[in-house]
Amino acid sequence: xxxTMMQFPLTLTHIFERAGQLFGASxxxxxxxxxxxxxxxxxxxxxxxxxxxxxxxxxGLQTGDRVATLMWxxxxxxxxxxxxxxxxxxxxxxxxxxxxxxxxxxxNHAGDRFLIVDDxxxxxxxxxRHLVKFERVFVVPLTGQPVPAGYESYEDFIRGNAVMxxxxxxxxxxxxxxxxxxxxxxxxxxVYSHRALVLHSMACAMGDTLGLKQSDSLCPxxxxxxxxxxxxxxxxxxxxxxxxxxxPHLDAVSLLDLYQAEAVTFTAGVPTIWMGILQALExxxxxxxxxxxxxxxxxxxxxPESMIRAFDRFNLNVLHAWGMTETTPxxxxxxxxxxxxxxxxxxxxxxxxKQGVPAPFVxxxxxxxxxxxxxxxxxxxxxxxxxxxxxxxxxxxDGEDDxxxxxxxxxxxxxxxxxxxxxxxxxxxxxxxxxxxxxxxSSLEVENALIGxxxxxxxxxxxxxxxxxxxxxxxxxxxxxxKSVTSAELHAYLTPQFAKxxxxxxxxxxxxxxxxxxxxxLKSKLREQFRDWQWS
Length: 536
Ligand code: ADP
What we know:
The protein is α/β, with parallel strands linked by helices. The protein contains 16 helices and 26 strands. Among the domains are: 8-29 and 40-202, ANL, N-terminal domain (Rossmann fold, 3-Layer(aba) Sandwich); 360-429, CATH 2.30.38.10; 434-529, ANL, C-terminal domain (GMP Synthetase, Chain A, domain 3, 2-Layer Sandwich).
């Protein structure tokens, strides 16, 4: 028997048009390079995004053509988020933190036809323009300066009165693409379909995942050039909430000022951002009046338990989440299940610091050499996922097929345990695992414990060759400014928390830890730096 339901395509067009119809008065606030605030409403956004789509079509945009953006988080980027895919194009966000040569490589690899770029980022564009051949480049004037000679103004372009034709899109048509930031090799492109982005938005809005709703004031700190700011602009516009876009000002004080001024209720970013925010709050606890219970999604790297606890003291609610470019990115979120709320609050932290349970339609498993790891919270295996917003391949790339198992699961390259309640805990990346005398040590667990020490600002634990054990952990430490601690003190601090063989054999104190464009610790570089380490 067949259903009698209509075939209704799941496209961003629906989300966009509905938002224009229902939420015209919702606000969009953007911080500009000079720190002033640009404000307008969904009705302006809707009209301008349609104008962008129409102008692109008039410029020759065909369904499936890639349009690149090189922009911070602000209103014009949001216009691109909807104007491009709803006109049939593919939104390709270039990561402005990458090396200029890599950006050029990525734009060429994706075959981008047009570029929309912030005027403040023209110096970056000029570093790779000799590598690329965009047909046209549109400059968004945000700084108040005239658009430099030789460039077209985005404002003039969208003022051309071209009416957008809404193409009848297949839900499987490409809507966007992102490249992985290359922590583990050369950048790889992932193409998101309309369907994937729509289902992802629906899943993100659910109460037990991110729980976004119309009354929220949403501030994505995670850049719109990194995994679509975790899809938050799509989810936010779907629910019609206020959007607060921080532009290029991502320092703790600027963000805290913005949270207060715009009554932000929901924000999201990587742990390094939250560490800075926490320090600023601890330094001046009375300076900001934030929305009580403000939700802060932490992902991209592990949220240390000490950080979750510290924010609780400020009545700010950290939600730990895991995902990847290849998973759009929502994978797991660490809410406490209702039945676990009976646990003493102290014990609940053991769950909140895990990466959480998978969202509906995301299936996870941890695989060992012997097969599916038991769900005992202890056995580590490679985390594999599948679902309607999980990539099935990379864009135009040979030789990466081993990232998918024969039965269609995506191999994340993360190592994880899964417990009886289904909570996933990431213990490492495959490439960062430390194997000592045949046993695995989770560098991430030891790092997170070290971060809990009051003198430690940052910690990385890496495996270094060892004559007897093959590899042993070395802890690389950055102290908080004005604080110091000895190796012996750190060792004594860790001892009650871990099995003896997990404890680092040595500690090295440094000024900084190398990081990737998205703020993750670059352990490959660190391992190189410490290659000739002599055990004391
Ligand atoms: P890249 O692969 O270039 O670092 P992604 O942003 O796609 O770019 O990173 C995804 C990876 O980030 C995951 O595979 C995982 O290793 C790490 N990650 C993401 N969220 C978390 C988290 N909550 N805890 C630990 N690691 C995380």
